[in-house]
Write a structure and sequence with these properties.
Largest sheet: 7 strands, mixed
Shape: globular
Number of helices: 4
Distance between the termini: 39 Å
Strand content: 25-35%
Number of strands: 7
Length: 175
């Protein structure tokens, strides 16, 4: 299948089971998320509902009728001064990685976050996952920090890499 067969659209709660399955794989086998036990479909639906109800983007990538990835952006921290900064989350189904889905999702998420009025997007990359760092760099993010040995998962200490990207006209880029 070509990249043109991919549809990026706003998620609905009907997508929660597919989103939960994709995320569960990464929780169980990866280090991008520091969750240990995958949330069930109802929990993921509640998370989706909270993001969408706030007017923030939650997108899915669909090929044929299968959800093959998802991405969301929500306010970076709950305090009012952070109202214009968001943090992204992006996960691709294990059988669909390395096919441009992550780049398509993140590109669409950046545009949707700009439309929501966000001026900065932060990526908190658990486990300093090289593929996630490369994806964010391709989409204009710069590394702005690293917290060493912050998380413990799969029998090892993990770093968090922080990357940042300005959104919209007039937003300042990280150094």
């Amino acid at each position: 299948m070509s990249k043109t067969d991919l549809v990026i659209r706003t998620a609905s709660l009907h997508d929660a089971a597919a989103v939960a399955r994709i995320y569960a794989h990464h929780v169980l086998h990866g280090t991008a998320s520091y969750e240990i036990d995958p949330p069930d479909t109802a929990t993921m639906a509640a998370r989706m509902d909270a993001v969408l109800a706030a007017g923030w983007p939650w997108l899915v990538a669909e090929r044929d009728t299968d959800v093959v990835g998802w991405a969301s952006a929500s306010q970076f921290r709950p305090r009012p001064a952070y109202a214009h900064a968001c943090e992204d989350s992006i996960y691709v189904a294990p059988g669909a990685m390395k096919g441009g889905i992550g780049t398509a999702l993140l590109t669409a998420l950046i545009a949707a976050a700009e439309q929501c009025g966000f001026r900065q997007m932060v990526a908190v990359i658990g486990g300093a996952e090289p593929a996630s760092i490369a994806l964010h760099a391709r989409c204009g993010f710069s590394e702005v920090g690293r917290l060493s040995g912050l998380g413990w998962k799969h029998g090892r200490w993990l770093d968090n890499v922080y990357m940042q990207r300005a959104l919209g006209a007039g937003a300042s880029s990280p150094p």
